[in-house]
Amino acid sequence: MKIDTIFVPGDSEDGIWSIQLDGETKTEYERFFDLMEDIESLRDFFKRNVADLQSRFFGVVSFECAIKRTLSEANEIQDALIRYSEYGFRRSGANLQYLFRPLNNFEFAIVSHQKSKARLGHGWIRLYAIRIAENCFVMTGGAIKLSRNMNRPHLQRELNKLDITRRFLIDNGIHYPEDLNYYENH
Amino acid sequence: MKTTSLKENMSALGDDRSSDWKAKAKYRLDNSEWLKKSAIIAVRVLDALESQCLSQKELAERMNISPQQVSKIVKGQENLTLETISKLEVALGIRLFEDTGSRKGSTGKKRKPAA
Question: Could you give the C-alpha distances from A113 to A81, A143, A168, B13, B107, in angstroms and in order?
Answer without folding.
Answer: 21, 20, 11, 16, 67
